[in-house]
Amino acid sequence: MTNTKGLFITVEGVEGVGKSTNIETIKSFLTAKDVEFILTREPGGTLIAEEIRGILLSLHEEKLTEMSELLLVFAARAQHLADIIKPALLSGKWVICDRFTDATYAYQGGGRGLSKTVISELEVMVQNDLRPDLTVILDLDPKIGMERAANRGSLDRIEQEHLEFFNKVRAVYLEIARSEPKRCVVIDASLPIGAVQENLRAILQSKLAEYFDQL
Hints:
- The protein is α/β, with parallel strands linked by helices.
- It has helices at 19-32, 47-57, 66-90, 101-111, 116-127, 142-152, 163-179, 193-213; strands at 8-12, 37-41, 94-98, 134-139, 184-188.
- It has 8 helices and 5 strands, in the order βαβααβααβααβα.
- The radius of gyration is 17 Å and the shape is globular.
């Protein structure tokens, strides 16, 4: 099923919320509906952006400053948009992205305490008017999320932050959801996985119907 306009869906949440599992649910749903799509992630998605991801997530002898971190995130995003996201959307494909700019507001804005105004200025500079059509925020108590993340194996540089950092991240995600209810949907990720997936499929079905009504 191809159309002239692609839909941009992002999946957000703190560590351990089950983004990978739920992205697989989205993948299965869209495949069954014969919707053309690509899966991608941030930071990353292209060779250059993946190299930047490595810098962002690896531990270094030299401390990565908060502003350096923010600029690297947007540098990776600029490459990702130019090489992957925009071409896919223009070709009519749906784009499913594991994190996007809401994560920057949450992690670098909430967690790091960087200026929301500065992030917004970079957002406009890099993205122009491009924003997700639907953002699924998987919500979970960060304490539970970090326990899940620890059980997966070794933690990266961001995952090693203290609990209060992730409490701030979660608070910003929920603030974004309250301020943009038409774009953002919050799903309780503490529910059994079957219930989470059922909620997610219902949201996708509604968005699919809305999408084709507007064509």
